[in-house]
From TrEMBL:
<protein>
    <submittedName>
        <fullName>Helix-turn-helix transcriptional regulator</fullName>
    </submittedName>
</protein>
<feature type="compositionally biased region" description="Basic residues">
    <location>
        <begin position="145"/>
        <end position="154"/>
    </location>
</feature>
<dbReference type="InterPro" id="IPR001387">
    <property type="entry name" value="Cro/C1-type_HTH"/>
</dbReference>
<feature type="region of interest" description="Disordered">
    <location>
        <begin position="126"/>
        <end position="170"/>
    </location>
</feature>
<dbReference type="Pfam" id="PF13560">
    <property type="entry name" value="HTH_31"/>
</dbReference>
<feature type="domain" description="HTH cro/C1-type">
    <location>
        <begin position="25"/>
        <end position="78"/>
    </location>
</feature>
<dbReference type="InterPro" id="IPR010982">
    <property type="entry name" value="Lambda_DNA-bd_dom_sf"/>
</dbReference>
Length: 170
C-alpha cells in the first residue's frame, strides 16, 4: 500500500469501493497537472479515449493499466478497484532446527550409487564384446569366423542388357 497522502485519501478509497479504476486515473492525472490530451499523447491515444477510460466506458484493460502506471496509481489500489484480490506475498522462514546428517544414510546412498553404475555398464558388455554380425544379418557358424562374401564384378553392360548368353555366342 502506498504511503503517499494522495493515494491514502478518503476520495481515493471511495473510488476503490465504487470499483472505479478510471476515477483513480483521473485523480492521478489531475494531481500531476495533466490534461486528458497530455495523458493521451503519453499513451498514444486521443483525449476522447482518455475521457472514456476515466468515465468507465472504455473496456481496454491494457490501456487502463498503462494509464494507471503513467499517473502513478499503486498496483494494489488499481487491482482493488477492478475487484481483484491481491494475494499476500509469500514469506520464507529459516528452519529453526537444521537437519542433522545421518552418516549411515549417507554411506548407504553412496554405496547404492557406486553399485548401480557398474551393474548398468555390465548389462551391455556381452553385446559389446560379441563380434560384428555377418553382412546378411545371420550369425556366423559356430567355431568359425564370419567370412565376407565377394561381390560380383561387372564390366560393361549386364548379360540381360546385351541380349543374354545367346547374344554373346551368336
Amino acid at each position: 500500500m502506498s504511503t503517499d497522502p494522495l493515494w491514502t485519501s478518503r476520495h481515493v478509497f471511495a473510488r476503490v469501493e465504487d470499483q472505479d479504476p478510471g476515477g483513480l486515473v483521473r485523480i492521478g492525472r489531475e494531481a500531476l497537472g495533466l490534461r486528458q490530451g497530455d495523458l493521451g499523447a503519453r499513451l498514444r491515444c486521443s483525449a476522447s479515449t482518455v475521457s472514456r477510460l476515466e468515465a468507465g466506458r472504455h473496456a481496454d484493460v491494457q490501456l487502463l493499466r498503462r494509464a494507471a502506471e503513467e499517473v502513478g496509481v499503486p498496483g494494489d489500489l488499481l487491482a482493488a478497484s477492478l475487484g481483484l484480490k491481491m494475494r499476500p506475498r509469500p514469506t520464507v522462514e529459516r528452519d529453526p532446527l537444521p537437519a542433522q546428517e545421518d552418516p549411515m544414510r549417507r554411506r548407504s546412498l553412496l554405496a547404492a550409487v557406486g553399485l548401480a553404475a557398474p551393474v548398468s555398464l555390465l548389462g551391455g558388455l556381452e553385446t559389446a564384446l560379441a563380434g560384428p554380425p555377418d553382412p546378411t544379418g545371420s550369425p556366423p557358424a559356430a567355431g568359425r569366423p564370419a567370412r565376407r562374401r565377394p561381390h560380383p564384378v561387372r564390366h560393361g553392360p549386364s548379360l540381360a542388357a546385351a541380349g543374354g548368353a545367346a547374344g554373346l555366342a551368336g
